[in-house]
Design goal:
- It comes from Sinorhizobium saheli.
- This is Flagellar export protein FliJ.
- This protein is mainly alpha-helical.
- It has one domain.
- Helices cover 89% and strands 0% of the residues.
- The radius of gyration is 25 Å and the shape is rod-shaped.
- The relative contact order is 0.16.
Length: 116
């Protein structure tokens, strides 16, 4: 019976760990989105300051070009994190199902022990 109790604790730990990983991914995505918005506002400011809003223009501000590239890179990272989040959600669902199964078996065994 100890083995089942250990299994339940292990599955519970795995569920908490997957939830933590999922939360971490969501926090990173939110931070990247915030950074992207900040960069976009800086780009708009630089474009207004220089009077040039065409990135192909020869006198387009260098800072705006760099900020635009960084914002684009952050968007790519957000998409990649979204894919990781989808995979983490699936893994969490699987671990939760395994935990529920192990907990049900432990509960059944505990009921059997009580009757005996």
């Amino acid at each position: 019976m100890k083995a089942r109790e250990s299994l339940v604790r292990l599955k519970e730990f795995q569920v908490r760990e997957k939830q933590r990983q999922l939360n971490q991914l969501q926090l990173m995505m939110a931070e990247f989105e915030r950074m992207t918005k900040d960069l976009e506002s800086q780009i708009v400011f630089e474009e207004k300051k220089s009077g040039i809003s065409d990135p192909a223009h020869f006198a387009y501000p260098t800072f705006a070009k760099a900020a635009r590239q960084r914002a684009d890179n952050l968007q790519v990272s957000i998409r990649e994190l979204k894919a990781q989040q989808d995979a983490a959600e699936l893994a969490l669902a699987e671990v939760q199902a395994e935990y529920a199964k192990a907990a049900a078996l432990e509960e059944r065994d505990a009921g059997t022990r009580m009757r005996a």
